[in-house]
Design brief:
- The chain has six helices and two strands; from the N terminus they run H-E-H-H-E-H-H-H.
- The chain has helices spanning 5-26, 45-48, 66-78, 93-98, 100-117, 144-175, and strands at 35-37, 83-85.
- A two-stranded parallel ribbon has the order 1-2.
- The radius of gyration is 20 Å and the shape is globular.
Length: 177
């Protein structure tokens, strides 16, 4: 994810660790190692993450609830699989594969908007980089509903625009002799 290089590197490292551990254990045990790959999860990450952007941190939607991730983990304990990708954000894998430079620039632009320009003003914070942040043990960060509603509205607008374009094309094709 552009604008989240450390986060992305950590996810890549975790995926590599998971694959290596799975193969090591498969050679001599019945232990199954499963990778769980969610998009942004509605947790209080924004409280614990350092932030010197001048804006409150926001995730790129859609955001999934932590309970959804927990449900997937419980399901994997009962029915193990190599990996599970949660959420619609993983649909970007196909455009990255087809046009990585174009897709990367598009996602970087969206990330810049969400990470650096769209949140309300916020003072600089070192988060829990140097000492623990007391947040009362919250599970959710408060990102889920507003971002989910906005994502659904935007998806509906894109679908409506697409259907409108198809209707115009069909109408024009019927006018031709």
């Amino acid at each position: 994810m552009p604008w989240a290089a450390t986060y992305s590197a950590t996810k890549y490292g975790l995926a590599g660790f998971t694959d290596a551990l799975r193969d090591e254990l498969a050679a001599h045990s019945d232990i199954r190692v499963c990778g769980v790959y969610p998009p942004f999860v509605d947790t209080p990450t924004n409280v614990h993450s350092p932030n010197y952007t001048g804006r409150a941190l926001r995730p790129v939607p859609p955001v999934v609830y932590p309970e959804r991730v927990a449900e997937v983990m419980v399901e994997l304990a009962v029915h193990p699989r190599r990996s599970v990708r949660i959420g619609a954000a993983h649909a970007l894998a196909a455009p990255y594969w087809i046009a990585p430079d174009w897709t990367g620039k598009l996602v970087a632009g969206l990330g810049r908007r969400f990470f650096l320009h769209s949140g309300p003003p916020a003072p600089p914070s070192s988060g829990s980089l140097f000492e623990p942040v007391m947040d009362g043990g919250r599970i959710r960060g408060g990102w889920g509903e507003p971002e989910r509603a906005r994502a659904k509205r935007n998806l509906a607008l894109v679908a409506l625009a697409g259907l409108s374009a198809l209707a115009v094309v069909r109408y024009r094709s019927q006018l031709r002799p």
